[in-house]
What we know:
- By secondary structure, the chain is an alpha/beta fold.
- The protein contains seven helices and eight strands.
- The strands form two sheets. A six-stranded parallel beta sheet has the order 3-2-1-4-6-7, sandwiched between helices. A two-stranded parallel sheet has the order 5-8.
Amino acid sequence: xxxxxxxxxxxxxxxxxxxxxxxxxxxxxxxxxxxxxxxxxxxxxxxxxxxxxxxxxxxxxxxxxxxxxxxxxxxxxxxxxxxxxxxxxxxxxxxxxxxxxxxxxxxxxxxxxxxxxxxxxxxxxxxxxxxxxxxxxxxxxxxxxxxxxxxxxxxxxxxxxxxxxxxxxxxxxxxxxxxxxxxxxxxxxxxxxxxxxxxxxxxxxxxxxxxxxxxxxxxxxxxxxxxxxxxxxxxx
Length: 236
């Protein structure tokens, strides 16, 4: 199928990796819908229509997927990228904060996939790409619940890949290392800090910021996503 005949939905497309992915797919000729919680306040992405979406809400997810399906009659590619980072030691993290991290980084992806699978199964084709992280392979201190959510995403994606393969729906996960984005600068901090952790927390944060300063641009990840989409049999 030619790119112009395929419809892609990219979550978290207002900046960083999501924006780079949406932009490159549009440049390649795909019909691309991106998402943001506040599209009206975002810089426009050339060739991409931004739709409102909060992946923490069942209603918002269903409305977004329904809008794309009604406009195009299909949905061929889903790139799950929306997320945030909760910064803080595990001991000082409140249960509500930990749950909020999982609601976006893990259950948000689950909601999106649950909403698009009926469409893809009916067409007997589809591509699902989950953007994970190096943190899904090796733990990073002081972002413990972000790390845990990405570890969960790894297992979920692998199981999903086996389950939907008979329907010609191909699933892959991408694990970027440090990329030059605003993810860490836009991190959410735990409310109750324990001062005993301060020196080690600061050292960890400074190391991450230095790595991101020297990191490649998000177009590197976007190119990887397009290779997966264009592959006849992409790897997990």
